[in-house]
Amino acid sequence: MKRNQRHLSTPCLSFAVFVILMLVNFLLTCSEVRAANHIKIGLLEEPKTLNILRASDTWSRRILSQIYHPLFILEPDTLDLIPWMAESDPVYDEATLSYTVKLKPVKWSCSALRTVSLSSG
Fold first, then answer.
1. CB of 59 within 8 A of CB of 47?
2. Which of 6, 47, 99, 109 could form an S-S bond across to 60 if both were Cys, CB 3.0 to 4.6 Å?
3. What is the pLDDT of residues 42-61, one digit of tens each?
4. Backbone dihedral angles phi then psi of residue 8, each to the nearest 5 degrees
């Protein structure tokens, strides 16, 4: 009869170890999620590129949309331009065939980008 009791305690011990391991795993996962300097984005596959000029797949664009912000976004119902990083609507100059866009005050990560002049020739 003692032999049966010892045999029954082995599954109980295994179950207890399993529960403890699952609890430790859960606590470690929760602490990683709460980290302030991390962002987790669920993807079904790896992005093909993080080069914004070459990104053509869904997963690359999803990641890049979290990194780069547009000057304007489209309002879904009317397709009007809504200033996002721009301060106001673009101003068109017929003499030079160019648009002028004033930016909102932003903090640049590269000081060389504080004064940028883009033109098409």
1. yes
2. 47
3. 888 889 998 888 999 999 98
4. -75, -30
